[in-house]
Design a protein that fits this description.
about 10% helix, single chain, 27 strands, about 375 residues, 5-stranded antiparallel beta sheet, 5 helices, 5-stranded mixed beta sheet, globular, mainly beta
Length: about 375
C-alpha cells in the first residue's frame, strides 16, 4: 500500500524512488501519481508510458484500421503510422489498450504494443439487439478506466427498443460475469450523441420527450443519475451533437444549421461554457476526441490540422478577449495527417492513445490471453 506523503517526507533519493516505481506494473504507477506532487512528477518525467504523451489515434471504420499521428508539433510532416488492423470495430481506448467489438456484440481487448489480445467472457444479455437493420453494436459500449481504483470496465448501455431491457450492464476486467444495474425507465441512449467516460464517470444522452438529458454512471459506486441540466442550446429537432472529453471535463460538440461547430465544456458548477468555435463551413471538429494536451484538431476534407490551444486568432487577427478559442478559414494550423477517403464524420473517428507495455494477462486467466506474432 502506498502511503500518502509530501515531498519533504521522502526519506530516500529520487533515483531510488524511480527504481521502485519502475518495478510496479503500469496501472499501479498511474495510481502512484496520486500520492503527492513529487511522485506525480517522477512518474510523468521518469517512466516510459508517461513520457509517451497522448497522441491522436485515427480509426478508419470502413477498413477497421487504426493509425497514430506521429507528431502534433509545428514541425509535423503530416505522417502517421499503422497501429492495428483487424475485423472488429473500435469501442474506445484507455491507457494504450484498445477495446474492440464484432458484429455480434462480443468484446476483445488489444494491446498493440505487446500484440496481446484478450476476449471478454460472454456478452451482456441485450447486446446486439438494436432496432431494425442498425449494425452499430460497437457504439452500445464504452471502455473506461477509473483513475483512483485503477480498474478497467466495459459498460453496455440500454440502446435496445425492447423495453424489458432497461438496465446498464458492466464488466470489470478480472471478473467472470457482467453485472446488471437498473437504469431509469425509458431513458435509452441516443447513439448519435456518443458515450464517453471522464474522470471515473460514464456519460450518455437520452432525448426522449424532446429534451436531451445527460445520464451519468459512476464507475466506482455503479450508481446511475439523470442530470438536472440539459445540453447547451440546440435548435428544435436538431440532433447533430456528440459528447466528448475536453482536458478532463465533460464536453459536447454541437453543429448548427449554418455550418458552424462549437465545443462546450461543463465547469465545476455544472454550467456549460463555450470554449471552441469553428466558423468554417464544410470544416469539422473531429469526434469523439479533438483536444490533446496543448493542441486541438480540425478536419478539412481529407486533411487533419492541429492548432495550439491558446494560439487561435479572431477573424480580425487578434486574440479573442474571452476564453473562447475561435478558428476561421484564415487561420492555418499544422497539417498532421492526410488520409484516404471522403468525409471524416463517416469514415474516421479520433481517440487519444499512449504506448503501454501493460500485460493483458493480469486481468484474466493466462491461457485466455493470446499473443499475436
Amino acid at each position: 500500500m502506498l502511503a500518502r506523503t509530501s515531498p519533504g517526507d521522502t526519506c530516500f533519493p529520487t533515483d531510488v524512488l524511480v527504481e521502485i516505481l519502475l518495478r510496479l506494473p503500469p496501472s499501479a504507477r498511474r495510481r502512484a501519481r496520486l500520492v503527492c506532487r513529487l511522485w506525480r512528477d517522477v512518474v510523468d518525467e521518469r517512466t516510459t508510458e508517461m513520457q509517451s504523451r497522448a497522441t491522436v489515434l485515427l480509426w478508419h471504420a470502413a477498413s477497421t484500421i487504426a493509425y497514430v499521428v506521429d507528431d502534433l508539433s509545428s514541425s509535423s510532416t503530416g505522417s502517421y503510422s499503422l497501429l492495428w488492423s483487424g475485423r472488429q470495430q473500435l469501442v474506445g481506448t484507455c491507457n494504450g489498450l484498445l477495446c474492440l467489438c464484432d458484429d455480434g456484440g462480443d468484446i476483445t481487448l488489444v494491446n498493440p504494443a505487446t500484440r496481446e489480445t484478450l476476449p471478454v467472457p460472454r456478452r451482456p444479455p441485450c447486446a446486439g439487439q438494436l432496432f431494425g437493420e442498425d449494425r452499430r453494436w460497437h457504439r452500445e459500449y464504452n471502455f473506461a478506466y477509473h483513475p483512483t481504483t485503477g480498474r478497467y470496465k466495459v459498460v453496455h448501455v440500454p440502446c435496445s427498443f425492447n423495453r424489458v431491457r432497461d438496465a446498464v450492464h458492466v464488466l470489470t476486467l478480472g471478473d467472470e460475469a457482467w453485472r446488471e444495474v437498473p437504469a431509469p425507465g425509458n431513458k435509452r441512449c441516443n447513439l448519435d450523441g456518443s458515450i464517453v467516460s471522464v474522470d471515473g464517470v460514464t456519460y450518455w444522452v437520452t432525448d426522449g420527450g424532446g429534451t436531451a438529458r445527460i445520464i451519468s454512471f459512476d464507475l466506482d459506486s455503479e450508481h446511475i443519475a439523470v442530470s438536472a441540466t440539459s445540453l447547451p442550446f440546440l435548435p428544435a429537432r436538431h440532433n447533430d451533437y456528440s459528447l466528448t472529453e475536453v482536458h478532463g471535463r465533460l464536453g459536447v460538440i454541437v453543429s448548427n444549421p449554418a455550418g458552424m461547430m462549437q465545443a462546450w465544456v461543463r465547469n465545476k458548477e455544472g454550467r456549460w461554457i463555450c470554449r471552441y468555435t469553428l466558423a468554417c463551413p464544410m470544416h469539422e471538429i473531429p469526434r469523439p476526441h479533438f483536444a490533446y494536451g496543448e493542441h486541438f484538431l480540425k478536419c478539412e476534407g481529407q486533411l487533419l490540422y492541429a492548432y495550439p490551444r491558446q494560439g487561435a486568432l479572431s477573424p480580425f487577427g487578434s486574440r479573442l478577449a474571452s476564453n473562447i478559442v475561435q478558428v476561421n478559414h484564415r487561420d492555418r494550423g499544422v497539417l498532421v495527417a492526410k488520409m484516404n477517403g471522403v468525409g471524416w464524420r463517416f469514415n474516421y473517428r479520433t481517440f487519444a492513445h499512449v504506448k503501454t507495455l501493460e500485460p493483458l494477462g493480469i486481468y484474466m486467466r493466462p491461457q485466455k490471453c493470446a499473443s499475436i506474432c
